[in-house]
Amino acid sequence: MPELPEVETVRRGLEPSMAGVRITQADVNRPDLRWPFPERMAERLTGARVERLRRRSKYILADLDTEETLLIHLGMSGRMTVSGDPLGQFVHDHPAQEKHDHVVFHMENGARVTFNDPRRFGAMDMMATGEEETHPLLAKLGPEPLGNAFSEDHLVAKLNGKNTPIKSALLDQHVVAGLGNIYVCEVLFRAGIHPARKVSRISDARIAALVPIIREVLLEAIEAGGSSLKDFRQADGELGYFQHNFRVYGREGHPCVTPDCASVVKRITQSGRSSFFCPSCQR
User: Fold this and answer.
1) Which residue, of 134, 145, 236, 261, has the fewest CB within 10 Å?
2) Model pTM score
3) Residues taking part in catalysis
């Protein structure tokens, strides 16, 4: 599933063609994705101007001049592509529509934005602008890891007294929003903490030190265009390349990248997910 850097990359890729631009026509080609679409979604989107594009955790939020906000979740295989952009951001013309092009936005500037999702695990919903924090998918999310509310004090306080593995604690969306399996593996490697170590056995100082490392890893991934694992695509259809910078994720059996470390990367399963780590560098 795309993680925060991938979703932020898509948001930035959509911005030149959608922000400040009116949707002249919205095609909704099926009644649902993971859940049913809201009533009259095509009608409510057609003619609306996109005031701005935001991101909350792994969700894209499009604020409309109709005082509604469109929520977009890419799911496991959803992708958004832009074609025919008159601003010259993208090079390809409108392709023929495909079987899994479930929602298509025809923009006033000539761009076409397409949501394609073969597995239909993505989602779209609409809500009144300003009421995002009460939406069932957003209401209980923790602070954004790149925002001011995510601080050393916050993380130490939220993890205080927990006896769960540190990886599980960081994946808890109530603690911090948007962190996923890939980047937690990378964060813990840089912090030198074993993913199975119980939170109660980690000092407050080491927990606090995770905050700048989390920001560093996410910002590097955003700058690189997202990891583009499996089905992820940037909005212009080009693959990202952050996966080439992974230090442990997906590198089971490969030598540790730390100079003078003779260990190889190992993998364990935690709550059904693969955790990659160096047994020498991470304790």
Assistant:
1) 134
2) 0.90
3) 2-3, 58, 273
